[in-house]
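Model: Ready when you are.
Researcher: Fold this.
Model:
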Amino acid sequence: KWFGSSASSFEKYKCESSAEAIENKRLGRATTLAINESSDPADTEEFWTLLGGQGSIKTAEEGDAPVDDEVGEGILLKLSEVNGTLMCAEIARGDLTTDMLSSDDVFIVDTMAEIFVWTGQDASDYEKRSGIRTALAYLEQAGRPAHTSITCFKEGKKIKNEIWNNIFSEEPTTSPAAAPSTDSAPLFSFGPAAVETKINDQFTKYVEKVESGYVLGYKNVSQTAFKLTLNFDGSSNMSLSDYFGAEAVGEFGISKAIGFDEMLCVKVSAVDPTQAYSYKMSMEGESV
């Protein structure tokens, strides 16, 4: 992992988390080495060799310089909780107006150069907690740079951001373009190919389709840490792999202590890929 001299604490934290995730996925067969921009060249030779040699490094100003874009144009997405499931779908693009916003939801505005998250005062707690997480997942799905700026606003607070005010002109010169149809499925359901369903005030159930199987598990959305055990019943035609840092319990179970916004999950695959498999997932645990 390489840290630029002007990297923010958040960027360093995300780098550390990603490196740790790779170590866990490879079951300890991988180790990480921290390299700073100011490190001795003799200590970084192998790193640069793997990248084809050391080139010029952009300054923070050059790296964060916005691309040319039409600030007056934006994509508006609405984040809402529907029957316990978090959904995010595009509702308009083009010239946007404030009457497109509603107090009971959270909205994401994509300007290509910057992301805005606007939280309505009557949005549910689940929606409010999920604004930034969803914006980050949206950037990942769209293949956008992880360092793209995300700015948050709350309804009722005066917004002085010039870009926001340029986008949300009160009298648009053209009508917003129609959003893609979402009759069959939402454009975006909490991350690429993922669905997160609220169970109670402590946990959500997480399901994501991945290559050759699914990632299944639970996420802690409370402020209390829990030691959880996840068990599968009727699982003779399935296999478990990639425990994401959890411990195996028996043949079809995993266990892990998770704090706020952390997950206990596992990848599940069919033993016979020509046959569909079914599962029954149960969770038990206690606060720690």
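Researcher: Now this one.
Model:
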Amino acid sequence: MSWFSRGIVLVCLLLLSWQLYQHGGYFLRHERWGWSLFGILFFASLLYAVICTLLGMGWIALLRGLGDRTLASQLYVIYTKSHIAKFLPGNIFHYAGRFALGRLAGVAHAHTTLASMGELASLGLMAILLMLFTLPRPLVLQHDAFTWAAGLFLGLLLLTTLLILSWCRQGWVVRFFENRLGMQFTVPCGYPILLGGLGAAMGHLLFFIAVGALTLWLANQLGGAAELWPQVLGIYALSWLLGTATPGSPGGVGVREVVLVAALSQMMGEPQALMLALMLRVVTTVGDFGFWAGGLLVERVNTAVPVNTMRSHRDM
């Protein structure tokens, strides 16, 4: 499987390289090439770094629903530090980083496991939900009733999963993970998990909408059509989903770009779509490092706060 996924990434990178070779003249002649382009990329990267805060808040919401009492600022630092590890080969080291850093901060492995699984499920469901409401579908599925029925089904599926987890403290769900992972789970009864999961899902949906809007803004800088905004939102969600589902693609490199170029070429032309995909890769990469730097700043502020003050806030 690892060789297969690496092969997919290699093919995607070769396709992108060939397209760059074909349209190299367009990039050299483009009127935006220069300091104005660097200004656009820098501003968009800052926005993306801020938008990534929604991902950290979603993860914190899941941990809060599981009963974790670690300071939110500490959890945020853990998320930002581990987030940058997604660029390592394998596309899984950001999850391993959360385990290691979380353990040092006193976060139970069981909580980290459930929160990571919940995050993946929530991001996937929100991406699919956004795609249902924005992307064109085959003729048999174009009726509005299908869209609302599918959206309602996904929403009910999320609610049902959260309710099962919140009601089954000693049930088969918890016992399954305890037996498989060898961890002792302490899942609170009632609705904390439900509220945490809904909060995370809302944050993840806002993340996709915000990054989709940022992608649309970049497209408009290249002469894209503003009336295509619903499709752009769905296309970004699709590219993110496929990039994340490819294990050998660190940060979705190659896969997301190919999806964006293939889907946007008919809307704005292949050279513009290729340039947009490359601009978005620069923005997300620099923005991820900005998100990481913001976490370091929060950590520095935390170290300046007296320990007694931090403990008093934790007990509140």
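Researcher: Key takeaway?
Model: Residues 307-316 have pLDDT under 50 and may be disordered.
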